[in-house]
Amino acid sequence: MQALLETHPFDLADALNQGCFCQTLDAQRLRVQLENDPSLGGMAESIARTRPHLFSSTVVFLSTPMVQAISDTVAAIERVMALPAWKAQALAGAAPMAQVDHGPVGAFMGYDFHIGADGPRLIEINTNAGGALLNAALARAQTACCQAMDVSLNAYRRLETLEDDFFAMFQSEWQLQRGDQVLRTVAIVDDDPAQQYLAPEFEMARQMFGRRGVQAVIADAAQLAWRDGALWHGATAIDLVYNRVTDFDLSEASHAALASAYASGAVVLTPHPRAHALRADKRHLVSLGHRPTLQALGVSEADQRILQTSVPACETVTPEKADALWERRRQLFFKPRSGFGARAVYRGDKLTRKVWEQIVAGDYIAQALVPPSLRAMEIDDTQTELKFDIRAYTYAGQLQLLAARTYHGQTTNFRTQGGGFAPVLLVPGQADIEKWLAQPQCAR
Does domain 313-368 fall into CATH 3.40.190.10? Predict the structure, then answer.
């Protein structure tokens, strides 16, 4: 390990990702973090049995400048999306529900990045990014394998305050719509929530609210009722909905009660259809990476420079472009405009003609292929490499938490042996390399 670090003096994070095989996850610590309330007893065992690839056993390293570049990119995007011209463009033709604005900006934004030698490259924007509470618990369950790792364990964020920050985010959303009124009840809502892959996080969110005096329930969206000017779950009137459904404009019949309550302002909904229309429509990736569009929208020169280096070129797929895009397909990644969770996405070099016909007939964008970074691991006594991306959880443009997702295949999948969520550790800059090299080397 020492020799590897000395060979890569200016890219310590990459050297650690390629050369540190330490398994730092402490299973007992993770159990304590996940089951921090008696009602959550058995969660760790249940996750290990039903979701064996949710958590990786190791960490991913990022350099201080890389983390700063991610933060700068998120801030630039948020500034662009706050421009009146952007709002007008994004909401033109959007669903009627997206035109509703009660004030909240949207909880748990997620910005996903691939990491390269030239910096972070944005690959996705999500309005209801899952996993933040799980990743906070995972980060607190790591054990340092050497003094160098002890220094870097999430140095960019004080982990013990994260849950307070997450609750404050929901409190802010409430106050943006309700002012000084008291938040009493919250519903954590999804379709058939017990069957969702991240269902354990719903229980963690319920406890987060409960510990702060807010009654919280986990609810199937179809079981909500709209009556007497309020949204109800059984006999409980709901003040705020933490929204995890992926019907982003609430147009499905099973979401009628939620849609009516939101449209009337009877409930605070976060994230909401307007946030998705403004931020997560995949056509926005085309605009964010296109300098003439940014200039026309009145984006500052400084933000244009940031986005030109961090947002890969994207374009819409049309029948007129089909032949040219097919010829360039090996350098492209294809995504459906309304897709989520890596569904119906394709690497161009894997395409068949049959799938290509579906893409051309559908509503897709073509994104310049940005290869993911690799994390060396030891799985069952065999050294291997997994791909990883970085998710930045944010609120109102501020970075809350970074987490990695490690995987094999075209996209993140939580089906990879040894893969899953992994904490991000901050590596000091060049000035601290000599101090790192003086530390005891990592033990396998």
Answer: no
pTM score above 0.90: yes
For the chain, where do the domains classified as CATH 3.30.1490.20 start and end?
A: 313-368
Look up residue 130 and give its two tokens. Answer: 């899952």
pLDDT for the residue 93: 87
DSSP letter for each residue of 364-421? EEEEE--PPEEEEEEETTEEEEEEEEEEEEEETTEEEEEEEEEESSSS--S-STT-EE
In the chain, CATH 3.40.50.1760 sits at 2-296+396-438
* pLDDT tier for residue 437 given thresholds of 50, 70 and 90: low
Count other C-beta atoms under 10 Å from residue 435's C-beta: 12
How many residues would you count in the chain?
444
∠ at Cα 157 (73, 341), nearest 5°?
A: 55
Q: Left, alpha or beta for 169 (phi > 0: left; psi -120 to 50: alpha)?
A: alpha
* Residue 88 DSSP class: H
Closest CA to 351 of 319, 369, 326, 372: 326
Give the CATH number of domain 2-296+396-438. Answer: 3.40.50.1760
